[in-house]
Design a protein that fits this description.
2 helices
């Protein structure tokens, strides 16, 4: 999630580390908290929903990978 309009139209996005795993269930926080190369590889294979925070007013969309 982001509140920056147009973010999901860009080819890349860097999530601020403070937002990583925020509002994430405990077991998933524990699983990915190291954020090492294996974690990154696994995360990039997961289905993903890209969403804006409500004030942007644009619908979410899923990854196409």
């Amino acid at each position: 999630m982001t509140s920056e309009p147009g973010t999901w139209d860009r080819p890349t996005y860097i999530l601020p580390i403070i937002r990583f795993l925020s509002h994430t269930a405990g077991p998933l926080q524990e699983r990915f908290q190291a954020l090492d190369e294996d974690d990154i590889a696994e995360l990039t294979r997961l289905p993903t929903l890209f969403a804006y925070e409500s004030q942007v007013g644009v619908p979410a969309h899923r990854s196409t990978k």
